[in-house]
Amino acid sequence: MAGGVFSSYYSSSSSIMETLFQRTLEDLIKGLRLQLIGESAFVSKAIEEIRREVKSTDPHTKSTALQKLSYLASLHFHDMSWAAFHVVEVMSSSRFFHKRIGYHAASLSFHDDTPVLLLITNQLRKDLASTNEFEVSLALECLSRISTPDLARDLTPEIFTLLSTTKILVRKKAISVVLRVFAKYPDAVRVCFKRLVENLDSSDPQILAAVVGVFCELASQDPGSYLPLAPEFYRILIDSKNNWVLIKVLKIFAKLAPLEPRLAKRVVEPICDHMRRTGAKSLMFECIRTVVSSFSEYESAVKLAVVKIRELLVDDDPNLKYLGLQALSVIAPKHLWAVLENKEVVIKWLSDEDPNIKLESLRLVMTMVSESNVVEISRVLVNFSLKSGPGFCNEILGSILFTCSRNVYEMIIDFDWYVSLLGEMSRIPHCQKGVEIENQLIDIGMRVKDVRPELLRVARDLLIDPALLGNPFLHRILAAAAWVSGEYVEFSRNPFELIEALLQPRTNLLPLSVRAVYIHSAFKVLIFCLHSYILQSESITSSFSDNLVLGVSELVLKRNMLEGSDLTTCEAPSAHRSEGFNPRNQSYEDLSIENGGDRTINDGQTSTRAFSEKNIFTYESIINLINQVELALGPLTGSHDAELLERTRHILCFIELIKGEITECLVQKGKTLESEEMKASKIIKLMSDAFSEELGPVSVSAQQRVPIPEGLVLKENLDDLETICADIQVPPSNLFSLGSPYYGEEVGVSPFGLQNKEESEPSNEATFLLTEHRKLHGLYYLASEKNEIVGNDYPPANEPKLQDNPKNDTEDLVKLTVQSLATNKKPNHAKTRPVVVKLDEGDLVTITAKRPETKDDLVSGAVREVLLGSDTRTATSQSNPSDKSSSKRKGKEKLNVDRSELKENLGDSETPKQENPSSRKNKHRTIGKERRHNSPGKIGKEREENGQKGKQKSSHRHARHKARHRADAPLNVVSQTPVIPDFLL
Amino acid sequence: MIHFVLLISRQGKVRLTKWYSPYSQKERTKVIRELSGVILTRGPKLCNFVEWKGYKVVYKRYASLYFCMCIDQEDNELEVLEIIHHYVEILDRYFGSVCELDLIFNFHKAYYILDELLIAGELQEPSKKTVARLISAQ
Question: What is d(CA A981, CA A924) in angstroms, rounded to the nearest whole number?
Answer without folding.
Answer: 15
